[in-house]
Predict the structure.
Amino acid sequence: MTTDAVTRLDSASEAPRKVGIGLIMRRLLRDPVAVFSLIVLTLLLIALLAAGQVAPYDPLRQNLRLRNLPPGTPSVEEGGFPHILGTDELGRDLLSRLIHGARVSLAVGLGSALLSGTAGTALGILAGYYGGRLDDLIMRLVDLQMSFPFLLLALLVLYALGPGFLNVILVLALVRWMVYARVARGLTLAMRSSPFIDAARVTGNSDLRIIRRHLLPNLASPLVILFTLEIAALILGEAALSYLGFGVQKPEPSWGLMIEAGKSYVSTAWWLTTFPGLAIFLTALSLNLLAASLRAISDPVQRERWLNAGLRERP
Amino acid sequence: MLAYLARRLLQSVAVTFVVLSLVFVAGRILGDPVRLVVGIEASEERVQRVREQLNLNQPLGQQYANFIGDALSLQFGTSFWQKVPALPRVLERIPATLTLTAAALALALPLGITLGALSALRPWSRIDRVTNVISLGGVSIVEFWLALMLILIFPVRLGWFKTSGYGGIEYFVLPALTLCYKPLGRIAQITRSAMLDELAKPYVKAARARGLAERRVVFVHALKNAAVPVLTISGDELAALLNGAIIVETVFGWPGIGRLTIQALERRDLPMVEATVFVVAIFIIVTNLLVDMAYTWLNPRIRFSAAGDA
Amino acid sequence: MLHRKTLLIVILLLLLLPAALQAQDDTVVIAVGIEPVSMDAWRGFAETGGPGFLNAVEQLVTRDFASGEMVPLLATAWEWVDDRTIQFTLREGVSFHDGSYFNAPAAAASINHTFDPENAFDLLDFVGSMSAEAVGDYTLNVSTPEPDPILLNKMYFVPIGSAQQLMDDPDSYHTNLIGTGPYRFVEWSSGESITYEVNPDWWGHGMMDEAGGEVIFQRAVYRFLPEDQVRTAAVQAGEAHIAQYITPEQCAEVSMSDSARCESAASVETIFIRMDTNSPMLGDVRVRRALQLGIDKDLIIETILGGTATATGQIVNDTALGHSPDISPYPYDPDEAAALLEAAAADGVPVDMPITLGARIAVMPGIDETLQAIASMWGDLGLNVSIEFFDPEGFGQVMLVNIKDVPEERNFVAVHLHGQELLDYHISYRFYFSCDGILSVYCNDEAEALWNAAEPLAGAERDATLQQLNQVAHDDVAAGYIGHLDFSYAVSNALDWSLKLDHRLQAKEMSPAG
């Protein structure tokens, strides 16, 4: 995925042609796949910002007598909100847990993506801009981490640090920074020798200024796409760590943990694992689809095709 | 060519060194291995004795030198947990992981490339969208959930294949299917974008102009060139497969190295963890070297020195 | 034409061959949750630590669950020589799988190795010290340092391994299980399974009653499947005959199928709640009582545990000496609990101290849910509770610690299982309540005196004193309890086997159905 972004973006970065935002938005809304992913992500955003207001029940309130109720069971309370997605192994409302779980899972995804994105981009630009020894050192480290299974690395560090919410964010950031470094370095390298950077240098701009004013804006769109993809990968990473018992700890409702908790009930209460599994799947899928659309928009060649695609298809 | 390979080999040695150092830091500096061996209730006297036995009373620098020396001579000591030398136990587990990842890759490569090529033929068409959702689905799926679902559907409901365990072909089907979906998705994506690049190139237009059959243009000429970037990522893909193997082996009771790693971590078995990481590192290095060789063979125009970068 | 037909048949045969090899009626397959640490013979004392080990190693005596009596196995007779020593008469004509003979010197060597303090095997902690001495070719004295009325019961937990092996190749003790049993150990495929196959030279062939079973399956395979759902699925799909430790929900589901059934039986395991009684908060008996009154045990048992437990107020069940019929579970009374906490708070007890409630991962089916339910009930009392799950080693570090080494501010509460296989409360007390107990975070001088008084006693006297001790501990809320636990198994209908109270999975007790 990530290398894909690089190859696509490398060729796209120079001389961006301006297309009106309006046209792109209109086109996006005509694309059913994009609309789908936008809807999913909007719902997530609502969950993230207003979980307390949206969720019908307290995600931690148990009622052992109402364990494993199937989806669509009406509430036992008079006029209570029905358990649309059923209840979990401790009688907690599954929908509410899913909504609050979005918070935890996205916090892990966003948090670690931001951390690793910042560090990785900074190191990548340094490597690309200054080159030489520094470049060598950073890129060897990148190669090393790239070729080593990141889950194993994360497990090793968590083994020493112990599990928990913050540790998971930290560790996931630690094992994914190199993805950004690689892209940022490649793009910086391509741009370093371009005329407009040369011009800026000749007019006496400091390195920091050149990086800030001229490099970063040009790196922004590919890095945003990469960031989108990484959130998806990190949410999945969190799920894997939770399954192995090294992730976020109970009773915190993270999606990965919810699947883990439901694994003994797969054959008797399928909804416990299916809905959080679906939530992760749809989130990751939407992020991936969005990234694909963004990529198409930022690439002039693809953009033309993408803009015209629907027109040609529908006579 | 030789010089290039020698350089890669040297790099690999450095990589192994860094990985081992990391394990050393995680195991010896962040935790106290002695307490893990003797348990918390042991007398201070016994702790001291074990500390000496394991040479853990020496200064850290000395310990580190010993550790690297032992690793180079393939001595990882006796497993705290299983009381047998750690390395042979880890090596025992290699074939299971190797065959599983190979099976997964054997499924993922042709399927992924076909899927990717198919969607590149008519970008943003319906076929493209469908294949895109399929391949992105692979990238987005939670593996252990998929595994449990497959077990319930196939062996339990339909009586096909085996739920778990290690053996003949019917044991392979479900773990390999689970494991292959993620790389399949990624390979399809890469193939698609590489194909799009190739199909836009002048030589394709020229071939078409010369009246070559479209099928031949796409599947022979463009695909062959598109194979280069696909191959480039298969090194990273291997790392990703091992990620998946940790999960898949745990669910299916597959006696591979991924499951062993989790067991060793749960038991805080430092020698076993060290040996596992070492073996995984070597495994990856060897495969990457092979990929490099295939890569240069496929694309002889590449300058070896440049291929070493990024 | 003929050629084609032949070819077709050959191809068909080739296709069917793997399937034919697969369907081995002479093999029993058992799915267990945990892979053993090593093949040390002594690990055969428990099924969880030594899956199927009793197929290969045998004890001097075993237990008849119909009568509750100890009955002969490798020993044919025994008598007490003095209050510290039992003299066993050993079975003749028995040999180990490595060809060496089973006799008194061999048995003595095996027992002494198992209890050698230098080896520090877990079994030594579990049953306490003992030593053996050969006084004749087939006469063996086993003795304890102090008088021990339940020494005979303890011998049920001491598997006898090959002495020849210890002498010739001591390192192989960890990887090669050599005993006298009906099956010999063939292979341990790390991460996968243990395989045993029939021992044609077993002493017990044709002696069903004395040997406790007969060999019908030629091979027995114990597969390690960490996921209970997958173990159950393996039985449902006909790949395994028995799935060990499944959840109540899985049990109910299996019961509805035609191909398999669910077997449950009471175990000697008790779910108990150990509190750091040296903390400023949990040191107060009112707080400890409030915690117990705040747990709705019946609800947890009825729902999470699916009825597979019996609520209790003591750590041993009614099969154990010292079990008191007068002790009932702490009732569920949140109002009283709140009042007690208030009273304690009024006296300056810091009832708002954070409590860490912990357990070992997968210690029993439903532990995750049980722990969260308790935390939630205590939260309702206004207590500050967080939960934590530990891997086996991590749990050992917080659990295997005496009160003297526990920092007062730890305020840790563990939910754990205690299995009183020796059926004697005195031993449970030693572990969990005595002032120096290796797992004890409790110390009460009055109770300690009673405990010491009970040690040399036997019979009714011992029972009475232990019951008194049990009552004292109960009144002081030395620990809390949920219930005595049942364990459930998915069993294929193709297998004839019934579960016994010791929850051992011995192939000699199994046969194909029909």
About this structure: The first helix of chain A runs from residue 2 to 12. Chain A touches chain B through 62 residues (CB under 8 Å).
